[in-house]
Design brief:
13% strand; 13 strands; Helicase, Ruva Protein, domain 3; 6-stranded parallel sheet; Rossmann fold; Arc Repressor Mutant, subunit A; 3-stranded mixed sheet
Length: 409
């Protein structure tokens, strides 16, 4: 009954997995804070969702976008920025799709036609348009102007606009980064005259939401280039691993009533999971959404019966453990040398001895202040450790990789 065609686990594909775990805070924030406030004509900052690879940043915002679309709102596709690419071109193309949703190409107003033409030029040439001042306003200004028109149309239609830009850490050109942040920031802070019930006219923000997703270091870079402006316009969240209870709850659909799946004969059956199999998937995942999806996917493929057993999880993980190890190794390897040394020395100490002084001495320093900058970045920027009287790992998969036989055990 289990087959590749009905497997609900999807690791690393940037699609929204059917078996969803956690992130209740961020999902609730969209449905109960961001969207209602924008609908009500209240100002709301953009959101920057950052985190190490595998924590589900992109899939989280794609789930939010799916909720928005289901409610009738207008959302861009996932605008992924390749390394060194011109972000204005990519965002311009996505905004033109929003303009289609808003019906702007059919509008008769001259200003809308001009705005569309300018953004079409940006989609073709990007930031290089800045070299030709006869082409009109700066590219980032053209994007803002069209987003404003889309926002006005959304207000009239009772919709919310959602723009999602992914892999923002890949924007290596400081000028392009600055222009993109200013353009999107201007669109979510601009106030336009709006007629309220009773004929009263007031200036209100537009119902435009912007979500940026990427690796943790983006926040430092954006703040250093745009300072207080970025902080005022975007609220930043650094994702952490999920709790084990989040993962258990996600698997409860299997362990209780069973997961509905096509049976291959035109009907619907149910796939169940034994309690010990579910607990094994939870323990192997260490709160990592990618590892959770990977373990679930391979356990599903390990058999064909109606119940996923502990043996299925073990057999599946045997095929997955090299990919799991490579995933965590990539996270560790991308740390700067001193941060790698800090994490390794911390891992080699017993949990009760993981103090700033103990780690500093293990690194060959006389004082805890010598390791302060490394610890601060690993905590506040990357979310890998937690500082305190005793330091602890927040990234539990990395801790397991460095201190146990995982993923082999």
């Amino acid at each position: 009954m289990r087959s590749p065609l009905n497997n609900p686990f999807t690791p690393g594909s940037d699609t929204v997995p059917e078996v969803w775990a956690g992130r209740v805070t961020q999902l609730t924030e969209w449905s109960q804070v961001v969207r209602p406030r924008l609908h009500a004509g209240l100002a709301e900052r953009g959101r920057t969702i950052l985190g190490e690879p595998g924590l589900g940043k992109s899939t989280l915002v794609r789930r939010i976008a799916a909720h928005a679309t289901a409610a009738g709102d207008w959302a861009t596709p996932q605008v992924r920025i390749p390394v060194g690419a011109d972000p204005l071109k990519a965002v311009a193309s996505a905004i033109l799709r929003l303009a289609d949703l808003a019906g702007l190409p059919a509008a008769r107003e001259q200003r809308i036609a001009e705005a569309l033409n300018r953004v079409r030029a940006v989609a073709a040439s990007g930031i290089s348009l800045s070299l030709d001042r006869q082409a009109g306003p700066e590219p980032y200004v053209a994007l803002t102007e069209l987003l404003v028109e889309i926002g006005v149309a959304a207000r009239r239609a009772g919709r919310v606009v959602l723009v999602h830009v992914d892999e923002v850490q890949n924007i290596v050109d400081d000028r392009a980064l600055s222009q993109l942040l200013i353009s999107l920031g201007d669109a979510i802070t601009v106030r336009v005259p709006t007629e309220l019930p009773g004929g009263v006219v007031d200036e209100l923000p537009l119902p435009v939401a912007v979500y940026l997703t990427g690796l943790p270091e983006f926040s430092e870079r954006a703040s250093s280039r745009n300072g207080a402006t970025f902080a005022r316009r975007f609220a930043t969240t650094t994702l952490e691993p999920l709790s084990d209870d989040d993962l258990r709850f996600a698997l409860s659909a299997f362990t209780r009533a069973g997961w509905e799946a096509a049976d291959g004969a035109g009907g619907i059956g149910r796939i169940r999971m034994s309690a010990d199999a579910a607990e094994r998937i939870v323990s192997l995942s260490h709160g990592e959404p990618f590892l959770f999806q990977l373990a679930g996917e391979r356990a599903w493929y390990a058999g064909t019966g109606e119940t996923i057993t502990l043996d299925d999880v073990r057999a599946g993980w045997e095929a997955a453990r090299y990919e799991a190890a490579a995933h965590v190794e990539r996270i560790f390897d991308r740390l700067p040398a001193k941060e790698q040394e800090f994490v390794r020395c911390m891992a080699e100490l017993e949990p009760g001895k993981r103090t700033a002084t103990g780690i500093a001495r293990a690194m060959g320093y006389a004082h805890a202040t010598n390791v302060g900058p490394f610890a601060q970045r690993l905590d506040t920027v990357r979310g890998i450790i937690s500082r305190g009287r005793n330091y602890a790992f927040r990234h539990r998969a990395l801790e397991a990789y460095l201190t146990t036989s995982w993923p082999n055990g």
